[in-house]
Amino acid sequence: MFRFLLLFVSFILTINSFDTVRIIGLFLQRQNATSGYLRSSSSSHWINQCIAMFRAAIILADRYKIHVEDHPINYTVLETTTDGNGFAALELLCQSITNKTEPDVVGIVGPASSTNARFLGPLAAHIELPLISYAATNAELEDIFTYETFYRTIPSDALLAEAIVQLFKYFLWTTCTMILGNDDYGYGGWKILSEVYHSKLSIEERLIFNPRLDKFHANLKQTLEKSRSRIVLVWANQSSSTRIIQHALEAQLLTGSYVWLMTNKVNAKIF
Q1: Which sign does the torsion angle of CA 226, 232, 233, 237 carry?
Q2: Which of 12, 42, 43, 16 shows the shortest CA–CA distance to 29?
């Protein structure tokens, strides 16, 4: 996080009369009521770690006299949701940026989801602010024309998709049933596999999980049983993946008949 803070100060911006400038940090709410259930303790711990690292970077910048046009760097933390509506995060960010009672904004850290990044990226590019996400992995965010000032500290989903294809090749698997979260992360993974790797991996059935409703768009058990493939690939975030596995447990689908592959961790407390 600290090395990417150096990237912010390389941008030449016009600073107002305040003594300091700001970097806005966008982080998930510790308890997201819109998801229909409390976030797991491990997720909350991860959020706390992200916020702590962000604050530590600001403290280190001050200690090492890393300033923007001789103005010390301050910060503002904004909490966002994962309700799938990026307009809420966009409104929150706009309100903070246009707040004339606070110092100018010189950069944005976040957001935590690809959905929100898709909404915020064009705005950041338009007003020439660097937007550096620590968690948004959607491969389409690499479009430098739409997301000109977007950067991230983790690999895109393109690398994950390639790793999954190599895994299938190693075990001589050719088909799977894919369960994806109803967000940019889930749809992005499905798009890469179906468009880029369709000749190497065939998706026999596709099942969409809606975390807000805590349900699938079709019957989970029937979909898996009618599929010719016994490989189940779950491309969803941690909270959705945990709920998907809980549904599979209730339907007695976590047996030797299926091989389950996850792109995110699952809360082990459900077992």
Answers
A1: positive
A2: 43
Q: Which of 130, 152, 174 is the last residue of a domain?
A: 152
pTM of the model: 0.83
Q: What whole-number distance in Å separates Cα of residue 86 and Cα of residue 138?
A: 14
Q: What is the pLDDT of residue 263?
A: 96
pLDDT at 204: 95
The mean per-residue pLDDT over the stretch 198-219 comes to 95
Task: Note whether 122 and 248 are same-domain residues.
Answer: no
Say whether both 147 and 175 belong to one domain.
Answer: no
Q: Are residues 124 and 163 in the same domain?
A: no
Going by pLDDT thresholds of 50, 70 and 90, the confidence category of residue 42 is: low
Range of the domain at 228: 157-270
Residue reference for tokens 């970077």 = 57
Q: Are residues 118 and 249 in the same domain?
A: no
Amino acid at 151: Y
Contact 179, 193 (CB under 8 A): no
Do 210 and 131 reside in the same domain of the chain? Answer: no
Task: Measure the N-to-C terminal CA separation of the chain; round to a whole number of Å.
Answer: 34
